[in-house]
Design goal:
single chain; globular; about 50% helix; 7-stranded parallel beta sheet; alpha/beta; Rossmann fold; 9 helices
Length: about 200
């Protein structure tokens, strides 16, 4: 992992559920992601709440001495709370929250989650496809959680509604440390491609 790569990778956005889900492995994965991001000396950017998988990943990163930046609409604080002792930005709307989460992140790790997580996922993938950004996106495929999603994307490609290049942005990884390693590898690949294009 080069110094240049680490300089580019300052913040990792974590998209995941505000609920715990039905499997302990989901909570274990969220904890592992928070720890791995802190150990990589990156800032964890997340939805600001103190509940569900997002609360676990953020609180773990903070407990490990990592930097955490939460973004939450004011009306959700009564419902989701917020972590004490970490930087929190209070916004007005869910759209503003999502836009800031995306803007403040150099890469994304996607954990299991529900419709809110799916909305964030489709937004970042669509931005990639439209050329609005070029940031690594890695799905932590805990217990095969994201397999149906991959099947759906493949189906839309097969039926002619989605270009293969969008499907290529979906990267499945099973472990948190490998997810960060993959992000760094993608950043290195981007730098190499830019250098070759410049030549």
């Amino acid at each position: 992992m080069s110094d240049v790569t680490m300089a580019k990778l300052r913040s990792i956005g974590v998209f995941c559920g505000s609920r715990m889900g039905e499997r302990k492995s989901y909570a274990d994965a969220a904890e592992a992601v928070g720890r791995a991001i802190a150990q990589a000396e990156c800032r964890l950017v997340y939805g600001g709440g103190d509940v569900g998988l997002m609360g676990i990943s953020a609180s773990t990163a903070a407990a490990e001495g990592g930097s955490v930046y939460g973004i939450i609409p004011g009306f959700l604080i009564a419902r989701e709370g917020h972590l004490e002792g970490v930087e929190i930005k209070i916004v007005e709307t869910m759209s503003e929250r999502k836009s800031l989460l995306i803007a403040e992140s150099d890469a994304y790790i996607i954990l299991p989650g529900g419709t809110g997580t799916l909305e964030e996922v489709f937004d970042v993938i669509s931005r990639q496809q439209l050329g609005l950004q070029d940031k690594p996106i890695v799905f932590l495929n805990t217990d095969g959680f994201w397999a149906p999603f991959i099947d759906l994307i493949a189906h839309t490609v097969k039926e002619g509604f989605t270009p293969q290049s969008l499907a290529d942005h979906v990267d499945l990884i099973d472990r948190a440390d490998l997810a960060i390693a993959r992000i760094c590898a993608q950043l290195d690949e981007q730098d190499t491609a830019k250098a070759e294009k410049a030549d």
